Amino acid sequence: MHHRISTRRGILAGTVAACVVPAALLPPLSVAPDPHPDAALLELGREMDDLVAALYSADSDEARDALCARYAAVQDQVAVLVPRTPAGLAVRLRLAWNLSTELDGTEHRFGPQPYSDDRTRLLWELIRDAERLSGIAA
Description:
By secondary structure, this protein is mainly α. It has one domain (38-134). Helix content is 64%, strand content 0%. The N and C termini lie far apart (88 Å). This is Twin-arginine translocation pathway signal. Residues 1-32 form the signal peptide. It comes from Azospirillum lipoferum. Keywords: Signal.
């Protein structure tokens, strides 16, 4: 009679046991955070700010022309995106202000100034309201 050294069940149990890895030894799962619902608008808003800053430091007409062309393209993109959050709305309101007034570097960076007109003051109040609702530091 032939004695089996191991049974099928034994082999299967040993294989399964060898394949099971304690959870503590596994690397942690990295879960990517959900993107902000208005990520595209927020990025375009940052780009508008960067372009305005670059416009004031441009050293040639060609550089200013290129920056103005990009600024216009960014404005066109912001104009068609529908905001889903107050932060996105703030970007769109800034565009409305930009389109309704001559670009003033001081107002663009710091909001209304003592010389600002009523329309500028109102639009900046709305921008700050939207930023406050979104939790953005105004």
